[in-house]
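Archive maintenance. Older records in this collection stored only the sequence; we are now back-filling the structure field for every entry so that each record is complete. The fields below show one back-filled record exactly as it appears after the update. Entries are processed alphabetically, and Nucleoporin Nup133/Nup155-like N-terminal domain-containing protein is next in the queue.

ARCHIVE ENTRY
Title: Nucleoporin Nup133/Nup155-like N-terminal domain-containing protein
Organism field: Henningerozyma blattae
Length field: 1222
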Amino acid sequence: MTSTNSKPLFKLRTDITGIAKSRAKPLSVEEIPERNNNNTRSVVNDESHLFLGFDNSKLLTENEKFRIKQLPTELSSFQNNTSQQQLTAYRATIDPTCGKAFLNDNNDLYIWNLNSNEKNPNFAKIPLNNNNTIQEVNDNFTPPLCLFVCSATADDNFNANFIDGSLGTKPANSTTTGIVYFTQESQVVYYEDIESVNNLSAELSRTKAHVLDLRLKDNEKIASAISVEPAGTIISTTLGRVCFITLRDSMGKPNLRIAKQLMNPTRGLFSSFNFSFNTGGKKTKNNIISLRRGPILGKGETLVYITTSSGDLVTWQISLTSSNCFKRSHINIYTDIMDSLSSLYPFATSSLQILDSHPLFKDDSSIHLILSSISHYDDFGHEIFYYILSTVQINEKANSATIFSTYRLNTYTSSVLPTNPTLYVSASLQEEPSSVLSIFVIFDDVIVLLQMNSKIDSNFHLRRKFEDIIRFRKDIRIIGSGFGSDTLYLINNYMGVLKIELLPSSSLGIQSESSSSDLDQNIRFVKSHITQSIYFSKRMDDNPVDFNLPNNISLLPEEIENDLFLVSDELFYSTGKYIPPLMNSLQQHLAERINYYENLLLFIRFNFKYKVSPSSILNLIEKFEIMKCCQRFIKIITEQNNQFLSVWQRILNSHSISEEELIIHQLNRFPSLFSNFLKELIIENFSNTSLDHKNSLVDLINDCIFQNILEDCEKKLRYDLFELDNKELGTLLPWFINENNCQAINRLLFDYKFSLNKTNTSPDNATVEHINKQFLSLIKILYYFFNQSKLWFALHDKATSNNVDGNPLNALYEANHLLWNEILCELNLKDESLQITEFYGDLESLVHTLDKIDKEISQEIYIHYFDKFGYLFASTLFKYYIDNNGVNTGNTGTASNLSDLFYRFPDQQQFRIQFFNDYPQYANIKWIQQIMDNEYSAASNTLYSITTNDIGSNQNKITNVEDRQIYLNISKLSALADVNIGNSSAVTNNQVMALTKIQENLDIIDGQQYLYENIKIENIRMNEKYKGTELNEYFNDIVANIKTRTSITASKLIEFCTMLNDSDSFFYALKLIASCNYSLPFEVKLFLVSLVWRRCILLKSFDDTIINEDSDDAKIISMPLYKVLHRYFDEELYNADVQLPDCYLIVDESLMTSDYCKHVYTTAKTASELSGIQHTLKLEYQSLKNIPNLESKINATLGLANKNSGDKCVINYENYMLVTRR
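Back-filled structure field:
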């Protein structure tokens, strides 16, 4: 910033570094001591660090446009009354031209030198009340209106230096200053010299007064007044009367008289309403809203501008000689202003109000600035006000006006009630024309500053305008003001006198008149206010300036965020102009920036909470976290641990950066350096360190990360201050979350716990409470890290977040989170474990911890979690019961260990039903619930599905023979129960089918049990022809399964029987096929029947003599095929659809498909092995085909077997079909 004086920049920075501790109070006369003229009190507190120059003023704020200072005078020193006054009980005025200011209530007027450097300056006191008693304040109380006036020594060359609606003026050669005030009784009281009545009693001072009774109407009061010295004063009344009052005669002697009535009061029936009709036909209240003084035209002659609320703009030329007073123009501008607005703001036609006016230039009476307002209601029913500045050019000859340009204020939209705002224009007081036109609009609680190029031409309305707003605290009210050519003075009810200085054009970026650019484009509105707030908002305990922006101001989100990042970078990288290059220490330098940054975040919260995206807020908070963490980290390693410091210095050296450079200009590198520090200390060189060293490192991490990042920043700022949801995330992972940091902290947790358990001692000065807090903080850190990473990956990289292998953070969490809570439970921190797991929704750990709490105590806690988490908690709990109860017995989910699942929470039955439906892997438990619910058919189906050999890859498949037999028997009983409880006496087909399938599987189990018993007594031998073939391993695999009581499929069991060397096994194979009428698919059954008959024939070669007519039946009977067929007919296997040996079927190789071989011969690990098995099977087909007269031999054997078994069937030898005899 370019300074306006000769002080160096570092002096300015020094001025604003301190914090004022002065005690500001609202004006209260009961606290003010009696004083005399000689009383000069020194400043009590040393506040020189806030003072600019040697005037004892305090800098409140500044930007590229203006500087606001608090002058040393404290107004509370000017009262001696003991009654408590209201804020509205004061009137104040400042006259920079004569260098004086006054404050008055209804009793006394206090005047002091404006330029006094004292906190309690000398003052003049003038009584305003003729009575000796102090007048009490009431709601309708208004202090008398007072004016400064010069003495009567003005000459012809006198030229006014001040234009104001309430102030007086002082000529350059005047040595005395008078005062005029107006009583409640409509009297004008004039004192020629302030000093002549200073501190006199009311009776004595009254003798010095010159009084004029205006004789106003009963309901008429004086509303406003201005000094037009040397001519006199102009007053307006509440009825619209305007009078010119002279104070002296032509000889300069005091002589108060009404020289001219410039506007008449409202008369007749409507006088009490004071209404008039403007040229637009709209009825408006015709109040005098503005009295402004124009240039002095000659000795005792000057122009006066009068503006009414109905839009009348009247110009009078007045003189000490009343006969020379005349009206120069009277123009109504209401319709012109309304027409200029109605196209853009249609509601202007019904809401336009004229509020104030002001001449733009000192010597030009034709250009005026008109302040007006329009209003409308938004969608929520709130009235929104727009304030319009219209530049009006007056043509006195044509008695007309032209709207030259129109501008709407953007920074203020509140109502103006109860008082109208006031305009001040800098150019109206300037002797020399300036390229910058500065306009102040003074509201009760804000000041709006507008600056533009002062060149009035056709491009005037197109030139860029700069607008800014100065707000004050809600309890601050402006009770007086005064204006110079580049200075605005304000008196408020708390802090005394404020001075707003406009900075020179060179520091504003204003170009010369010949330049094509009016205002510097780099002056940023948002950044200016942010900068003021963060550097000045807390410089004084009671700074009257409110640095927050108005609620209804319209700003672009891009502009807001860009400026926020500009300011945050200035603080983060130490590039801001108010940040000192160096301080006593790096810690102090960083602490100062942290304080400023905290102000920035507070400003964002109260001004842009819903205007800045969550990701941008997180980005801003992240910088603050880095600063805080770095500050604490450097402090700890510097003050407490030399070993940590040496590691840190080594890391800095390896990255070619100094600590000073890091802290002041390159804090963005701290996260990676800090991560490297943790990696070197914990991951690489931690296992052999001492317990005290580990304890110190735990404290460092908890202090830097848990306290400074998670507690002070994430919790207090992200969640409490900005109220962000934990699912509102940035574009990148939080700076403190990465695989290295998570691994380091996780390892530190377990290594530290292991060291404590191993040594069975505590570190130096570490209590049990402290150790518990250490572990609790570490676990909270880990939970927050992993939770944030899960949320971030879920939002930005869903594929990775769901893939544990692809996201090492997920893998690390899954492997350790249960162990974290084991540590908490071991430390007897079960309550804390429940709180953490509940907060983060780690229901798996939650139920583990609950299981360690006594049942009587935890019962209500369970109910709480059922209510809070509902089915999610229930399913996790049920899964835990099933998975962990079986551990105690070596069997997963045995019913004897599941009582809690079914009986502890009877109210959660619907959750249990939903759980079993959603988790089919727990079907081995589901059937219990179904039986309890009397759903016997469903229970039977569930039991059957987990015991069937064709269950495929279902992980619930019961493979143990005994278990399958138990489950199938229960399934059978459940199916029978379903039949018994049926409403109909008839058994349905579905029930029959279910029972049949169950029985088939039980028969298969019986077959395997039979083989098991025979294998156990070594009563089973494999056919020699399979030894040494690829089927040998297949046979051995089946034997191994039978021995281990592992269930095998029916097809494997049948084929196993065909590989034995006795005929009984073949018949048993056929019985198994007969038992599996529904269990085996038709194609599989057909293949197995052909396999049995084929291998039965090949078990022993046929003799050719069998087909001779003279052959002996004994030879046929000795063949294995006959033995099997004889038993086939005896036990009537044909009733089970077991086909006879068809010579065409048993040699049909098409039944042996590749898919079937792959499905059955699973012992073949390679294609070569599978090909070998297929080759062995093909040899069987070929061997069968090589038997001569095969069909005749089979037929002969069939006939004999049927005959010897009782000839029960008629055999159709063409298709080997049977007809059963009746």
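Update note: Residues 1020-1220 form one domain. The CA atoms of residues 960 and 1046 lie 5 Å apart.
Entry marked complete.
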